[in-house]
Amino acid sequence: MSSRTKIHEFGVTADGASVHRAILENDRGMRVAILSFGGIIQSIEVPDRHGLTGNVVLGFDSLAHYESDDYYLGAIVGRCANRILNGSFTLDGVTYQLDRNDDFGTMHGGSTSLDKRVWALEAIEGADSQGVRLTIVSDDGDNGFPGKVTITATYELANDRNVLRLSFEATTDAPTVVNLTGHSYFNLAAEGSGGVGDHLLVLDADAYLPVTTELVPTGRIEAVAGTPFDFRAPCRIAERIRMGDEQLRLARGYDHNFVLRKPDGADAFARAARLVDPLSGRAMEVWTTEPGLDVYTGNFLDGSVIGAGGRIYRQGDAIALEPEHFADSPNQPDFPSVELRPGEIYHSRTEYHFSTVAVGGGDAGMRGLAAGAGVSA
Ligand code: GAL
Question: Is the pTM above the cut of 0.90?
């Protein structure tokens, strides 16, 4: 039997707007909660290898926590995700000054951006999926960005596969820049259970973007070969994250864009990452049309917030895998363009594929599992 999206009232914001929560539940034991506030994924519950369900993303119980959250837990970020140096860029000869919400410039669209707004939310039903469509209009001049941009974000959960899809569409009435992504922090052993150091990670990337002391890309593209950024073969995160590497020191872990291997073109739909928790057996693959993947190991989580399960979040307790165009793209002519013009439609699609892997024997066995052996859907 296929279930249907359920929507109920979740809370009221400090300035009186009512916020709804949608629950998507499929026939394979997966359950996802999405808020109209920030388009936030509040929880993703998936079975482990024994069928025990756990929530694999960081999040909060209450709306008030989300309203004051600085970590963008589970939110949709934009209009132009990630860092823009000095909060400024030039398009068609006009220089725009954006709202600066960080020392280096503008982060994730500026203050009170898409992650802190209430989106219109409606249930949708596909032939073999259920979901929600979220819509928002970001006015001309919003946080300094030019053009009135209409954005649709759609979450769809397959009824009989543990696949969650997030797709975006956007249009504008004047030339602008758009870069949207979902900002979920994953811990496949369950949120609040500790660090993700023992998770095995594969990244489908041969190169990454080194950053400056302000964690903005330098503009150089560097091969991962021979560096701690080489996750082309499955590797425990803990094996690499403490290597005495200057880039890892600057970011206090991973907080870098990886250049995805896209033999069929930069916007082709391809796998970006595979993450496996050997203990629970939960595995996740991220597939995307985006050219880049921002990998962020929760380096700023400092033990100052208590998450949904009543546990404190600390550095390394999760990994965010954010498919997106590269950070600071509006200022980097050699990066894939984030420009959007009237008449064009911005499209972006990302899928999170959950599965489980059988118990492996020793380290070699685990590496085989991470590479895809022993998968049950
Ligand atoms: C990430 C970014 C980090 C940090 C985080 C929010 O997307 O890469 O540097 O700003 O968002 O705390």
Answer: yes
